[in-house]
Amino acid sequence: MKPAPFDYVPAESVEEALDVLEQTGGEARILAGGQSLLPMLNMRLARPQIVIDVMRIAALKKVEETGGALIIRAAVRQVEIERWPNLAKDQPLLAAALACVGHAQTRSRGTLCGSIAHADPSAELPLVLVARGGSVHLRSRKAKRKVAAEDFFTGMMTTDRREDELIEAITFPPNVPATGYAFREVARRHGDFAIVACAAIADTKSARLAIGGVAERPVVRAMPLPGSSALDDALNEFAWSLEARDDLHASARYRRELVRRIGKSTLEEAVRCRA
Amino acid sequence: MDVQGESWVGRSLPRVEDAALLSGCGRFIDDLGVRPGTLHAAILRSPHAHAEIAGIEVAEALAAPGVAALLTGADIKRLTSSMVVGVKAPLECWPIATERVRYVGEPVAIVVALDRYLAEDALDLIEVEYKPLPAIVDPVRALAEDASILHPSLGSNLASERSFRYGDPERAFAEAPHRIAIKVRYPRNSCTPIETYGVLAEYDPGSDAYDVLANFQGPFSIHAVISRALKVPGNRLRLRTPPDSGGSFGVKQGVFPYIILIAAASRVAGRPVKWIEDRLENLAGAVSATNRVTKLVAAVEANGRITALDWDQIEDCGANLRAPEPATLYRMHGNMTGAYAIRHVAIRNRVVLTNKTPSGLNRGFGGPQVYYALERLVQRIAVELRLDSIDVFRANLVPAEAFPYKAAAGAILDSGEYRIAMEKALEQGGHAELVVRRDAARAQGRLYGIGYTAIVEPSVSNMGYITAVLKSAERKKAGPKNGAQATATISIDPVGSVSVHVASVPQGQGHRTVLAQVVADVLGLKPNDIRVITDIDTGKDAWSIASGNYASRFAPAVAGTAHIAASRLRDRIARIAAQQLNVKAEDIVFKDGRIGAANNPENAIPFSRIAAASHWAPGALPGDVDQAIRETVFWTPPELTAPNDQDEVNSSLCHGFIFDFCGVEIDRTTGEVRLDRYVTMHDCGRILHPAMVAGQVTGGFAHALGAALLEEYVYGEDGSFLAGTFADYLVPTIMEVPEPIILHHETRSPFTPLGAKGVGEGNCMSTPVCIANAVADALGVADIELPLIPSRIAEHLHGPETPPKRVPTQAAPKAGARQLFGEGSATVRAPRQAVWEMLLDPNTLEKVVPGAHTIERVSETHFRADVTLGVGPVKGRYKAEIRLADLVAPQSMTLSGKASGALGFGDGTGFVTLEETDGTTMIRYRYQAGIGGKVASVGGRLLDGAVRFLISQFFAAVAKQASGDTTRRASGFIARLLVRLRRPP
Amino acid sequence: MPRMSGSRRHAVAFTLNGRAVEGEVEPRMLLTDFLRHVIGATGTHVGCEHGVCGACTVQVDGEPSRACLMLAVQAGGADIRTVEGLAPAPGRLSILQESFRTHFGLQCGFCTPGILMSLDALFAHTPNASEQQIREQLSGHLCRCTGYTPIMRAALAAGEQLRRESAHA
Predict the structure, then answer these.
(1) Is the dihedral of CA B318, B319, B325, B329 positive or negative?
(2) Do A109 and C51 touch (CB under 8 A)?
């Protein structure tokens, strides 16, 4: 269980990383915290010819807070955001979800952008980014572009990122006043990938519910506010639309049931949490 | 003579093992140095559950950098002979696949290279051609007439069948007012020690001998199996164990087939070869407990008293019968009546082979399977007869005055006060309060249940029990097998310091600490004065077939044997002391490091001085003492006799008693089981070290909790192995394991030197079924299947499901199968005929087959391709075959494909129709696909999406190729794909 | 730009338990293999090589990290601590180590080094770690011997003892 050989590029600047990406495209993988890539390398599920380490790039280690938005660059580790001052107040959904991402021993090295790039449909961070209407900042040697999180995740571990692009940063938009946020997930064990993860956002007029772990990517949908007679139907349609599948941890039926039930209680909690 | 002062035994002294282990100074097998020039092995494993090996191409791998040798099944067959099989049947058992593979993870080839990285590189270059055969996973299906047969020599999948009858079960059933039955399936699981297997082997051609270091745990009867397989006499197989071993729980018995493989590899390579199993190999290919299907019927009186049992057990040992299997099925044989006084028993035992990992030792060994059936039955008796469970126990438990009690099938239960222990547990464990909690929870509409179990925990196995699988005449022919030789050596060096050497091969249980306590007590020394060595070298140490760490034999057998050895040495030293102190030997006392006269404390000499006398002044020893330097004792209990003509067998020397009860609450929304309280009462005889006993109980409890709630080696219907990582095979963490309340009631064993009984495995037997009984009570249902995964429990909780208003487009996959079904469509701005021609044109196929490097046309409708397939970062290179059939131009065809490569294999069939409207063609497809091998084992969670992705990708490529640019017309998933596909490759 | 060839060895240097260490590795070599088989620091154990069991946990710049999910080349310049660096002096045990011995927080000892490194990092960062925080920290480790009960006891007692010591200091 050892990786196949690869060349290693400890990039010192974004430009350097982008140069290599452009030259090698699909043969290269970006290595940030390595908590998703290394297991795949060890199992030889992934066998890139080149691994570009971006963790030495000073420009990618920054976190910016502008107007309440949190812009997190590629080399920022999860533990740094976990300890970010006032995170629970300013980014309550992110704070709640981060605690469920793996374990302390993986959050210490894993990055947020890395989890977004990996696009595991059960992962918490893609779900929160989609739920919050966040965005992904992509950059190639030729161009920069910003993609809405909802459009970024295209399927099972597949994203809108082009092979010559680097995820430079992700943005979590500012917390909206008078809005409640709630996060809940059901997993077989603490720290496991979610069987169903729910992120709910509610203000006085509307609600949104994002579901991870069921479809091939996190999916967000507008929902009637709890108390509305239309909620149960909307949740049921949402649950079915995700095309849940059976696996060894849970049946499709169970996943739909949790979308309906946990989805509802998470929405209710979001309403209760409205500031 | 006498030993005076406070006894060390019975106290929770700090462990002598710990300082090194806590400082990173442990000496586990992979921590030890190797000889210069040692090579490293990696093993290629089967991705198929069942397939013929049509060919193995190794030239490229042999030429790879750093590769020194490569062995396949043919080489192993040439160098070794089949491992001995424990039943009389035309069966061979090889440590590597020879003509066919029979389980996912079965070794197929071994590469020996300069390091492990290079060895794994070379594995990727081996090409194996497999011809898949139908796989058998279900043990009941394995017995069907039309079942695919694993071993053609056997003619069926039934490796052994025996029926037994004790007492008069037919009459008991005829006379009983009630007949209560249960049918249960016990799943596959394993205690998965955190340290994996390791082997270091060297062949000496000069003496045709093997020297092997392995983290093997015994029993050393396996030494004979290994040497026979390696075709050398036992004295030419020197088997050593490292000083530390990272847990075993039975599992490390299963390293022995790898000892054979690595030993053979070292012979071929001409150099020492080392192999450390990795976790993927461990989960797929190490040892699993057996899964078992049991039908159990009881004849029951109105008060719940069971008068007879009728067992029908179908044991699934996996692909091969590896020694000592089918021992799991016979381990409990002498006592299939548990803690109950049941005189009439019928048993039908069948052993079947299926396309799963061969089974072997695993903590509890046969107990979890037996007690899951028996104790579920006892719960059903209480429910069906509307009795209190406790009253059913009261009616059936073996009464205290009956001990030693001979059970119907021959076990002799050594000691016990089962009813007293139970009542004590109920009282001290707060049973009355738990009932109040349950009633209060239920009054609030919550789901709360209480479960109970009463079991007997056997320890110190009789080496003859397994021969109960043979008929009496067969046994006679083979010669009697019985006993349980334990060994201990005590030696004294020239400065009078004491060493203890045993062949108990601990894997973390703290044997060294306890032995120091035992011997210190005998010799009047401090435990610190005693040095205990527990690694073993079969070339130099005292050992026998029963040596090793299994059947919870340490405290009852090994510690007792050390006590006997120390006592014999002490008696000789006492005679030397008596001469020097001028008193009678009977009046000598050993105390505080001195040997002296009982009635005159001043008349004493330091222990070391007298103890060393045999070295320095042997001529001055009393006439009746030859030496007091070394004493080796072999001890075997006389109670462990061979099975008799009536098939009665005392399968174990000691029988502890456990009574457990627990309260569980089930979350109505998620189906999650929360353990509210767990009480476990143990009678393990005399307790030598209370903290270690507690550690055995909490450790066994955690394993059992895992078995009850989380752990299962899941196989797809096609035999694919689906729990290939620690993210899929779920071991409980600290978040899932509550602290049990541990109680003790002690009745010493009259059969063991120290009165101790085993305690290491009981909770693995009692706890899974205790939790299951509580869940059955909470849900009010009879059929409970382990593990109790929330998704399965929720089936009892969630009412009928509201259908969607809009029917989903994708057909749902079949539950539990690796076969996937789906459908989709793509729109092409091109006429139907053009699309049709394109599908038949190899030049365009090259462009539309995902990731194709080359396509070779074999015939009009048959193509071979070299492709790179993948999803996200998961990519692999495959050889693919594509066939077109059922051609109805230009409307429909069947398209089938197969691909195989290092990451596994896949196949799929698609039915494709073309419909044209206004110059636009709609391609509709329905497919059925399956994936197996490594990807299925380690990436099952990602699999369904991957298959859909690849198939969609193919048709999207067809669409793109036919129309140039279709993005604006396609929608949804296809559109996203096409965005991707427009990018330059 | 530096591009380290996959087929060659490259120098890597970092601080291990306060001492400079260096060696030559292919880019693909895991930190676990480098520590154990190149440096000879075998106290860090390998249990799964996919980041779940926690046996290989070491501290990288003070944070508990899976050494099996790190390439040795990634460790260049880092400050790495392993179980070998816990004891205050040869033949002595730290408070945490001693607590594990007192409370029988280990049996086979294979998972223990990783657990110690995680707890040591927790107590350094959060001296007042609650039982729940300890539990969360330990949830990243698999132990098959103890059933966790004695580990929790050892951890709680060590936390208390460390707080007492720092109050006296």
Answers:
(1) positive
(2) no
